[in-house]
Amino acid sequence: TGFITLDTGYKNTGSTKSAVTFLDGEEGILKYRGYAIEELAEKSSFLEVAYLLIYGDLPKQAELDKFQNDISMHTLIHEDMKKFFDGYPSKSHPMAQLISLVCSLSTFYPECLKSHQTPEEKDLTIIKLMAKMTTLVAFIYKKSLGHPLIYPKNKYDYVTNYLWMTFGQRTEDYEVNPVVVSAMNKLLILHADHEQNCSASTVRMVGSSDCNLYASISAGIAALWGPLHGGANQAVIEMLELIKEDGGDTEKWINKAKDKNDPFRMMGFGHRVYKNFDPRAKIIKKACDDILENLGIDDPVLEIAKKLEEAALTDQYFIDRKLYPNVDFYSGIIYRALGFPSEMFTVLFALGRLPGWIAQWKEMHENKEPINRPRQIYVGHKDREFVPISSRG
Ligand code: CMC
């Protein structure tokens, strides 16, 4: 079978050619379809960026209106899906629920199972997922509180509608706070894609067997859940809380992170590709200051996070290994200021990453990529003689 190159963790192996996202880890550059992340985060809306990622170009106004309108037509989920929520234990992790709910969409919309969907059919499958994701994520949260579900209001744009279903009261005059809408747009944009990371590669891997979009994305959500990937945002806030309760001695925790006999890692630090800084973290750190000030919130963990960052960036261990704060380091502080509990943080990451996953899945199909099937170097037993169970000593 020829020569096999071993690259565990795919540290230096390209799995595909992609025109979606450009990432330069040395220079700290991130671009979606050629547009700098800094500019998109400042000037764009999440839905506009979703369109850009999925269809390749920024939408004209009429295209964006149609995209929004098509999505609004599909925000309801099948009423039978609500029964799932009653089945999950009330304190079960939102990510576990999201994984199964997204996969379950393929039972309600079986047209997604059709191999070789026409572009129109594929588009409808995508629109339904974009639409129903917000409703599922909002319902998961409402159920976790034991509160009544709030149904989508289609007069709202994508992000406002999501926030309405999450925080909306059933009074006639309740308005979603525009500061929160703008913060949420920014966060979702910053999370929208990140080239061939663990979850995107998973979506492509699963999709390469011609598995339907909903199941492929569900697999991506599972990959995201781990604390080394998207689950880090929940782990960061829990770590910061722990440090606060422990008296705020950042030096002690830095030493713990450096200790090779201690499994503790500084959560929200380090990245496989970024070796100078994570451009998303830079934007989020600044946004964190602005948003907390705007909302009049003083969160003591923000000070701890800044102290930790400062101490780590001057520590030889972190310098030698090029460890910098990543996207997850400050995002949780903002989510918390917006009113989300920490168990929801990774779900919010998934909501933001959805268009990226869809774009990766769509590109893989359009490029007619072959089934992904890595090889291995076998290191197990060679030839063994079978011994009947009665004779095994
Ligand atoms: N705290 C302490 N030491 C660290 C950390 C950390 N957060 N990250 C890496 N190191 C050390 C690691 O122990 C190793 O040291 P040595 O060379 O002495 O053995 C060296 O740095 C290289 O680390 P690695 O684990 O080989 O690097 P990797 O590219 O495989 O892992 C990472 C990247 C992001 C998984 C890792 O840095 C990490 O676990 N960070 C904490 C979790 C985290 O914040 N994840 C979010 C990543 S960004 C958003 C996303 O992708 O979802």
TrEMBL record:
Superkingdom to which the source organism belongs: Bacteria
Name a single GO biological process.
Answer: tricarboxylic acid cycle
- What CDD domains would the database entry show? EcCS_like
Q: Which reaction does it catalyse?
A: oxaloacetate + acetyl-CoA + H2O = citrate + CoA + H(+)
According to UniProt, this protein's pathway is: Carbohydrate metabolism; tricarboxylic acid cycle; isocitrate from oxaloacetate: step 1/2
Q: Which GO terms describe its cellular component?
A: cytoplasm
Output the SUPFAM superfamilies linked to this UniProt entry. Citrate synthase
Carries keyword Transferase?
A: yes
InterPro entries named among the record's database cross-references: Citrate_synth-like_lrg_a-sub (IPR016142), Citrate_synth-like_sm_a-sub (IPR016143), Citrate_synthase (IPR002020), Citrate_synthase_AS (IPR019810), Citrate_synthase_bac-typ (IPR024176), Citrate_synthase_sf (IPR036969), Citrate_synthase_typ-I (IPR010953)
Keywords of the record: Acyltransferase, Transferase, Tricarboxylic acid cycle
Q: Which positions are catalytic residues?
A: 271, 328
According to the UniProt entry, its GO molecular function terms are: citrate synthase activity
PANTHER family, alphabetically? Answer: CITRATE SYNTHASE (PTHR42871)
The entry assigns this protein to a family as follows:
Belongs to the citrate synthase family.
Q: What is the designated name of this protein?
A: Citrate synthase
Taxonomic source organism: Pedobacter yulinensis
